[in-house]
Amino acid sequence: MKKILFSIAFIGVVLACSTTPERSIQPLIEGAVMGALDKPASYQPIQTEIDSAFSPQDDADLFRLLSEIADLNQELSLTIGKGSVVLTGDVKEKIKDKTEKVAQILQRKKTFIGYKVTHTFSAENNLGENVKESNIYLVNKDVSKILFSMTPEDYAQLQQAIVTLQEKFQKRLEVPEEQ
User: What are the two backbone dihedrals, phi and then psi, of residue 64, each rounded to the nearest 5 degrees?
Assistant: First the structure.
């Protein structure tokens, strides 16, 4: 009987001491936020929501590529306005290469890749005003690194771009039926 009680107590202690993703994510996120604030002493966490992240929808590499494509499109627009043909061809080639990488990522099977964390906090800005802010962080599955961060608005735009691209790539893969 003593062995059974000891075993139950030991299992309880082990489970209580084990590190959950939530326990590891909170300090990781707070450290990133504090490092970016003008007045870290004013930081007040409000809410942290942790959800599973799956590839391809929440893939940090995909988000990085889409952000780079958006920047290149901006550069292309500016270049065309200035009439520089050489740079335009280079930019178009970079966009094409990145778009091919995006297509490869979007073809991946749904796979758990880590965590999507929405963190809301308040802090003082440079003017001394207390502002409320939210950011979304993609954290690797080991909970050791933030892979990408963005505003909720940017996340919504990226998700819409992903849906649009998936539809376009799907249409490209469809073969017309023979008559």
Answer: -60, -45
Work out the end-to-end distance of the chain between its first and last CA atoms, rounded to an integer number of angstroms.
Answer: 78
DSSP for 55-91 reads ETTT-HHHHHHHHHHHHHHHHHHHHHHHT-HHHHHHH
| Residues 52 and 112: beta-carbon distance below 8 Å | yes
Phi then psi dihedrals of residue 59, to 5 deg? -75, 120
Q: How far is CA 15 from the centre of its chain?
A: 30
Tens digits of per-residue pLDDT, 124-175?
Answer: 998 889 999 999 999 999 999 999 999 999 999 999 989 988 888 777 766 5
Residue 133, classed as helix, strand or coil, is: strand
Does the pLDDT at position 123 exceed 80? yes
Q: Cβ(139)–Cβ(76) under 8 Å?
A: no
| Residues 46 and 122: beta-carbon distance below 8 Å | yes
Strands 111-124 and 44-55, by their bridges, are: antiparallel
Tell which residue, 137, 170, 149, 131, has the closest CA to residue 67.
149
The neighbouring-strand residues paired with 48 are: 119
Predicted TM-score (pTM) of this structure: 0.77
